[in-house]
Write a structure and sequence with these properties.
Layout lengths: L5 E2 L8 E4 L30 E6 L6 E5 L2 E5 L5 E6 L3 E3 L17 E3 L3 E7 L4 E6 L6 E5 L5 E3 L18 E6 L6 E7 L11 E6 L21 E2 L5 H4 L6 E8 L2 E12 L8 E12 L9 E4 L2 E3 L2 E3 L1 E9 L1 H8 L6 E8 L12 E7 H16 L4 E2 L9 E2 L21
Parallel strand pairs: 1-20
Antiparallel strand pairs: 2-25, 3-4, 4-5, 5-6, 7-8, 9-10, 10-11, 11-12, 13-14, 14-15, 15-16, 17-18, 18-19, 19-20, 21-22, 23-24, 24-25, 26-27
Length: about 400
């Protein structure tokens, strides 16, 4: 696939950072407790683990993605409905899955780990994707978790071969008079020939339609996807892109990632593998993924860098924080948690920090980098695409300084 990916090699400076355990937004003296608070609880089957949770913003109903089950709970955690998703006979080496083609690998009773849980509000259904059969998804009716569809007979229906819970993120882009899109980002676990790391899929109105999860665009040369070249694995054998969070805002879809890279420590002639955090952005309407851009993201305090992303969440500024950051209450803010370490992928035991980014300022920085790259300044430092830096090329039609990214996304 031909794409025009750009990369920004500068660390994004933090806009606000609060050390874990303290916050300037909390009252100095907490009000005295007048009564003991009570909490409601929910406990699933002893052998289960909970993987994902989504809340219906219209009804308050809670949907839990667990191992071998999907739960629908009331707002006070009463079980309303359950839907069993596993276990079943499977082998992760079977591709295509044995449900569509005979597999010579030994089959064993295998749990179905929920890897993605999304509410499709437009069609009143839940998209629940599991680890069985290379990542099969079910479409369940929100009301009673009745199975509306389970596409499995095409290779596009297998979204990810990774069996870990936090390996897949999906973002729905909704339209009033067209079928919606589903952007899928996933680790590929050494199978780049089978699974694109990011793709845009059709989310059809009919849950049993033949085109469900088909690529939005796909011809002989170009498709709505990004694939990691197999050559990359010769340099970093265990290379992968791990997706920590995904969201949409304005004309763009964003994913926050962890990626390995090889660096030379000061005074050393050998390279070692560390992890770096990057923000990936795509235009919603870009069917060929030419707008792909990724930028390193992190924050620092007192000369200490926090570069290993642990979690993220998009929300509005609100009145109080908006005044603190000099933004409007309805501006999008990206709340992130980083740790100091870069040697381990996740769950670092090192010191952590909460960092808040104003999304508009991130977009402004991306625009500046795009403009400089069109002027031939800098390199494309994309570890997943090439094993060495590629210089930016001069272009006569680079983005003018007065252009607004939010209203002219077709320039990317």
């Amino acid at each position: 696939m031909k794409a025009m990916p750009w990369n920004w090699t500068c660390l994004l400076s933090h806009l606000l950072m609060v050390g874990m355990g303290s916050s300037t937004l909390l009252p100095r003296q907490p009000p005295p407790l007048t009564q003991k608070r009570s909490f409601v609880t929910f406990r699933g089957e002893p052998t289960e683990g909970f993987n994902h949770l989504v809340v219906d913003e219209r009804t308050g109903h809670i949907y839990l993605g667990a191992v071998n089950r999907i739960y629908k709970l009331s707002s006070d955690l009463k079980v309303l409905v359950t839907h069993q998703t596993g276990p079943d006979e499977d082998n992760p080496k079977c591709y295509p899955p044995r449900i569509v083609q005979t597999c010579n690998e030994p089959l064993t009773t295998t749990n179905n780990v929920n890897k993605m849980l999304l509410i499709d509000y437009k069609e009143n259904r839940l998209i629940a994707c599991g680890s069985l059969y290379q990542g099969i998804c079910k479409l369940l009716r929100l009301e009673d978790l009745f199975k509306l569809g389970e596409p499995f007979h095409k290779k596009e229906h297998y979204l990810s071969g990774v069996n870990e819970s936090g390996s897949v993120f999906g973002v729905i882009v909704s339209y009033s008079n067209l079928d919606d899109k589903l952007f899928i980002a996933t680790a590929v676990d050494g199978k780049p020939e089978y699974f694109p790391t990011i793709s845009s899929r059709k989310l059809t109105k009919n849950s049993e339609a033949d085109g469900m999860f088909a690529y939005v665009f796909h011809d002989e040369f170009v498709a709505s996807m990004i694939k990691i070249p197999s050559d990359t694995f010769t340099v970093i054998p265990d290379f992968d892109i791990y997706y920590v969070y995904g969201f949409s805002s304005g004309n763009f879809v964003y994913f926050l990632t962890l990626q390995p890279e090889m660096v030379s420590p000061p005074g050393s002639t050998t390279k070692e593998q560390v992890y770096t955090s990057k923000l990936v952005r795509l235009c919603k309407e870009d069917t060929a993924f030419n707008s792909y851009v990724e930028v390193p993201i992190g924050c620092e305090r007192g000369g200490v860098e926090y570069r290993l992303l642990q979690a993220a969440y998009l929300s509005k500024a609100g009145a109080v924080l908006g005044r603190t950051l000099s933004v409007r209450p309805d501006d999008d803010l990206l709340f992130t948690v980083f740790s100091k370490g870069q040697k381990r992928k996740m769950k670092s035991l090192d010191e952590s920090a909460l960092c808040i980014f104003i999304l508009k300022q991130i977009n402004d920085r991306i625009k500046e980098r795009l403009q400089s790259c069109y002027r031939g300044e800098g390199t494309l430092d994309l570890a997943w695409l090439k094993v060495k830096d590629i210089p930016c090329s001069s272009a006569d039609n680079y983005i003018p300084s007065w252009a607004s990214l939010d209203s002219h996304h077709h320039w990317l």
